[in-house]
Amino acid sequence: MFACEVRFYREIAPVVGVRVPGCMTADQTPDGTLLVLEDLSAWREGCDPVAAGLLLAGMHARWAGTAADRWPWLRRPGAAAELIGALYDRVWPVLSARADLSPSTRAFGSRLLGRVPAAERAVAAAGPATLAHGDASARNFRTGPGGELALLDWEDVSAMPGVADLAWLLVSSVEPDRWDEVLAAYGRHDGIATVLPAVAVQALLSLADEPDGSPEAASWCGRLDAAIARFGDEL
Question: pTM above the 0.70 mark?
Fold first, then answer.
């Protein structure tokens, strides 16, 4: 992951077409990696979700059908699928016992048992591959004093359908009453149901880190419930 981020700043950042931190150093040696990046700590964490949807739409359109050939080292859907599946199957018994999990989310999560690797690989069928951030949650956006957006933390950069970024933005960061605005801003989003099982796995593993009944957990549960109700036909 760290090596991918170094290569991103060396090869992709200069042409990516969205605002990213300026890079002073991007080194990889036998001892590890070193990135020295522009300090954006004065920028506000997060952004308006509609603006995030527009930014992702522009980036995905720019690199649709070309990113995988231009940067063949980019990860593809299904990378580490077996490891993710093993982790999920190990964590699910604890997750399923949580009091804050709704019946619909618990049932969806149970159906994922033993099927996570297939769900991870199925992301490839959601649309043409493009340059995907891989973790396009609100915490990886910054908003500048003049409203400019920057996208940070590129260690998960991948070549995959753009709707994977869109679905993760919604499930990780956007209250469901604003989803229609974000979807309209992004534009065509065929395939979002196809990526939902893999996105739900990521969300459920994130939920596992939050105390049962905490405000953060309640937010995760609410967004998962909304996503399963709206897009959960593929499992």
Answer: yes
